Amino acid sequence: MADFFRVHADYVGRVGVEVGVFVAVDHLRRAGLLSDAEEDLYLDIDDWFRDALPVPPVYADGNTRGAVTWFRDSVRGREDFTGRIAALRGILTAHGVAHRESTSDDPGTVLYEDGYQVCVLPRSRRPADPPPFPPGTVPGPTTAGSKRHLARRSARGPGGRSDGA
């Protein structure tokens, strides 16, 4: 069994590798394609991981070095991790976004590591693919910290109304 695994979409993002499961679901969120329930689930899972794992310092500047995070194989035995990753994969499947899991003993040059994950510079990069959602959607870099303030319901104001009433 390999030391590390990564769940990712099959399209290549701005850092020259397949976008990870969190970024792929966030792209769907930004494109306005998630239902309220899917958005809530994604935000809950994203916040849980931000609370449960250290945030690698390479993300403090928006990931200008193009690092990629891989989980340590040891987290596979933890349902709190695997169940949440499976839920994100379910969202991708529901929206027809092809995705898979990759494994490696040597995913790249290690910039950061802790007991759950490693952040690496990938050994190779490719040009970005067009994203698999509506034309004009700008996937861009994801934001650091919780994305809950970016939720559609937050933008609509109290009671879900965009006029603030």
Poorly predicted ranges (pLDDT <50, ≥5 residues)?
154-165
**Any idea how many domains?**
1
What's the helix-strand series?
A: EEHHEHEEEH
Q: Into which percent range does the helicity of residues fall?
A: 25-40%
Number of helices: 4
Assembly level:
single chain
The best one-word shape is globular
Radius of gyration: 16 Å
- What integer is the average pLDDT? 85
Biased composition (Basic residues): 146-155
Biased composition (Pro residues): 129-138
Region (Disordered): 122-165
Structure description:
Strands 1, 2, 3, 4, 5 and 6 form a six-stranded antiparallel beta sheet that branches. The chain has 165 residues and is of the alpha+beta class. The protein has one domain (4-160). The model is unreliable at 154-165 (pLDDT under 50). Helices cover 29% and strands 20% of the residues. Residues 146-155 have a biased composition (Basic residues). Residues 122-165 are annotated as: Disordered.
List the helices and strands and how they pair.
Blueprint: E1 4-12, E2 18-20, H1 21-30, H2 36-52, E3 68-72, H3 79-94, E4 99-104, E5 109-113, E6 117-121, H4 152-156
Antiparallel strand pairs: 1-2, 1-3, 1-4, 3-6, 5-6
Helix pairs in contact: 1-3, 2-3
Short description:
This protein has helices spanning 21-30, 36-52, 79-94, 152-156, and strands at 4-12, 18-20, 68-72, 99-104, 109-113, 117-121. The radius of gyration is 16 Å and the shape is globular. The protein is 29% helix and 20% strand.
Task: Output the keywords.
165 residues; alpha+beta; 6-stranded antiparallel β-sheet; 6 strands; 20% strand; globular
